[in-house]
Amino acid sequence: MRFGMCGAFLPGNMDNFTPEIAERVKSLGFSGVFTRFSQNDPFDTSPAQCHRLRDLLADQGLHLYQVTGYWQPLMSPDESLRREAVRTLQAAVRIAHQLGARGIDTGPGSMSPDGPWMPHGDNWNPEVKDQLIKSLRECAQTAEDHGIYISLEGHQVVVLDNAETTREVLDAVDSHWVRSDLDPANWITLKTVFDTGTAIDEMFDTLGDHIVSGHAKDISINPSHIIHMPTNAPGTGQLDFATYIRRLEALDPTYPLIVEGASAEQLPATSQFLHQTAADLGIAVLDKP
Is-above-0.90 flag for pTM? Predict the structure, then answer.
């Protein structure tokens, strides 16, 4: 098992990543990061910029587990938008390679004009899924050529609304380099929030070897008549992390579990919780700083 982190104090521009930030990551017990360099256009970022950060992380003994895929609409029925989204993801893969990253994290996009993780009634049209499969097939060779995983994240508000749909898409793409970045909290529903361990087992049983990495955030349900299920820092909600960590470890002990949903102030407790959960399960944490 490897533990990483994202967000919090990590910068939005790779040029602002310093040795001091790397030391802070390590001091929290994390062996790597997932960076969202939204300020670095994948078409304009230079190899020199990438290599500076690659070498900095190597010198500090940190992994770059994931970088952003820029959340492009890979599923758009508008063919011109879809083709541009493919170009963006392919460019992001090349940047990831220059950075020495393990993979890209990307979602499918949404039909909503409000953002890639917003619900829309057309997100589950058959054409949307077909377009997503088409886009991922067109990106798979670039991922293979550069040795970069396209780690696909789902959520119940977009076309990848559950493990079954994700399995169907990944089976159709049929590439070792296009895999699932599992985030169980994104698929927890009202019917499963009180038994998340069973839900997590079903996700792993469905996706199996399609999974290549995991995100760690928690989920709760508000005690009110109106259904609201906020996400939280790991260890502060309903998610069964013992089951999650055990199942991810069984797939491959080298896979990273990357913390999401935790503020800088919450990260020390989050790290302690994850390390203690692994220890209770008898699981070794690799590359522990």
Answer: yes
